[in-house]
Amino acid sequence: MKCNQKHKFMQISLIVFIVSLFACGARAEDTNEEETVIEDFFICRTCGNDVSVANLAFDKYSPFALSATNHTFTDTRSVLVQEVENPLGIRFHIFLVKQASCIKIQPWTHKSTWFPGYAWKVCVCPKCHTLLGWMFEPVESATAEQHFPTHAGFYALIFQNIITEGYVNSLLMKEKVLRDN
Ligand SMILES: *[C@@H]1O[C@H](CO)[C@@H](O)[C@H](O)[C@H]1NC(C)=O
Ligand SMILES: [Zn+2]
């Protein structure tokens, strides 16, 4: 009889063990999914082409920034938007991403950089050829053969020329709500 009870206890603890295994497995799966979820798409305001994703945004201060503000692109992501000025006196609001889609374009420029130690070239939309921003690459690796930034480089996108898909969808939703009422 004692033996029976012990057996029952072991059965229960085995079930608890198995359930906890599954619970852990499920949790691990959830975190994996969270890592691959695309928060939002950055798209070309002119033509709607995909430029980058919100997950790839990161902050790096330019010592030449005239001003800087945190802009909330999505519920979860706030991005540093800096105002910079080119040698012609034209001002741009820029934010940074690790990767973006631009056409292949000629050599890197070393002078008048907003990020010391980095050479730059323009980033032009592959579809409509609008200026989307600039590519930056450490001076040492900014060679003629290196068409795009390496993992050590980055992209600065022009805030006014980019729109998020979430924002576009929210406009469409609003329009639909207005129509329905
Ligand atoms: C932006 O937000 C970060 C993190 O909350 C903060 O450290 C930084 O000072 C903010 N920058 C500006 C310009 O508000
Ligand atoms: Zn475009």
Automatic annotation (TrEMBL):
Record-linked InterPro entries: CULT
Q: Which residues form the CULT domain?
A: 39-166
Q: Which domain of life is it from?
A: Eukaryota
Give a yes or no for keyword Thylakoid in this entry: no
Q: Is Magnesium given among the entry's keywords? A: no
* Cleavable signal peptide: 1-28
The family database entries (Gene3D superfamilies) matched by this protein are listed as: Peptide methionine sulfoxide reductase (2.170.150.20)
Keywords, sorted A to Z: Signal
Q: What's this protein's name?
A: CULT domain-containing protein
